[in-house]
From TrEMBL:
<feature type="domain" description="ARMET C-terminal">
    <location>
        <begin position="124"/>
        <end position="166"/>
    </location>
</feature>
<dbReference type="InterPro" id="IPR045333">
    <property type="entry name" value="ARMET-like"/>
</dbReference>
<dbReference type="InterPro" id="IPR036361">
    <property type="entry name" value="SAP_dom_sf"/>
</dbReference>
<keyword id="KW-0964">Secreted</keyword>
<feature type="signal peptide">
    <location>
        <begin position="1"/>
        <end position="20"/>
    </location>
</feature>
<comment type="function">
    <text>Required during the maturation of the embryonic nervous system for maintenance of neuronal and cuticular connectivity. Essential for maintenance of dopaminergic neurons and dopamine levels.</text>
</comment>
<protein>
    <recommendedName>
        <fullName>Mesencephalic astrocyte-derived neurotrophic factor homolog</fullName>
    </recommendedName>
</protein>
<keyword id="KW-0732">Signal</keyword>
<dbReference type="InterPro" id="IPR019345">
    <property type="entry name" value="ARMET_C"/>
</dbReference>
<dbReference type="GO" id="GO:0071542">
    <property type="term" value="P:dopaminergic neuron differentiation"/>
</dbReference>
<comment type="similarity">
    <text>Belongs to the ARMET family.</text>
</comment>
<keyword id="KW-0217">Developmental protein</keyword>
<keyword id="KW-1015">Disulfide bond</keyword>
<dbReference type="GO" id="GO:0031175">
    <property type="term" value="P:neuron projection development"/>
</dbReference>
<dbReference type="GO" id="GO:0005783">
    <property type="term" value="C:endoplasmic reticulum"/>
</dbReference>
<dbReference type="Pfam" id="PF10208">
    <property type="entry name" value="ARMET_C"/>
</dbReference>
<dbReference type="Pfam" id="PF20145">
    <property type="entry name" value="ARMET_N"/>
</dbReference>
Length: 171
């Protein structure tokens, strides 16, 4: 009988380790939950409602993917749904971030689909190998237009013209 308990425990632990979520798999969730958790005081962590109110306040200043994560959880006034309690309750009991994100992923798969945009190293990147969509994004991030650009080479030419203005050589 003891061997069966040992074997079932071992099987449970093995499956639990395999199912562990990695930061790369759900990077926005990990980052936002860690960042938010570090802002909480011990007094706030004692009350689930205070944690939720604090998260809503935290989300007011969020931008980009962090803001989208807040939207999915229900931390924004414009959020359509709210699964905020699924984050606040575990935070109240100091549950690890990977467990919180795994639980949130089960409730809403979009949460782990969020990814931060990759930063481009202009010193090493070959613009010719980037997609037109990425070239347009670079110009959009710089809040620049490319009037008359029809082909990839037009976008590359425009980015090359603007690089001295936006890309600084760091010493």
């Amino acid at each position: 009988m003891d061997f069966k308990i040992f074997l079932s425990t071992l099987l449970y632990l093995t499956l639990n380790c395999v199912a562990a979520l990695k930061k790369e798999d759900c990077e926005v969730c990990f980052t936002v939950v860690d960042k938010f958790s570090n802002t909480l005081t011990a007094a706030i962590k004692e009350d689930k409602k205070l944690i939720e109110d604090e998260f809503k306040e935290f989300c007011k200043n969020s931008k980009g993917k962090d803001n989208k994560f807040c939207y999915y959880l229900g931390g924004l006034e414009t959020s359509a749904t709210g699964i905020l309690s699924e984050m606040s309750r575990p935070l109240q009991f100091n549950v690890p971030t990977d467990v919180i994100c795994r639980k949130l992923k089960k409730l809403d798969g979009q949460i782990c689909d969020l990814r931060y945009d990759k930063q481009i190293d202009f010193k090493t990147v070959d613009l010719k190998k980037l997609k037109v969509r990425d070239l347009k994004k670079i110009l959009n991030d710089w809040e620049e237009d490319c009037e008359g650009c029809l082909e990839k080479t037009d976008y590359i030419r425009r980015i090359t013209e603007l690089m001295p203005k936006y890309v600084r050589d760091e010493l």
